Amino acid sequence: MRGLSFFLFSLLLLFLLVTAFGLFFPSRVTVSRAVDIQASRTTVYELLADPMQWKQWFPGGDSLRLLKAEGQVTGIRTPNGNALLIQSQNDSTILVKGLQAAAVGGDMGFRLIGAQAQEGVTVQWFMNFTFDWYPWERFSSLLLENKFGSFMEQGLKNLQQQAQSAARIN
Question: Which of 65, 68, 112, 138 fits a 20 to 30 Å CA distance from 26?
Answer without folding.
Answer: 112
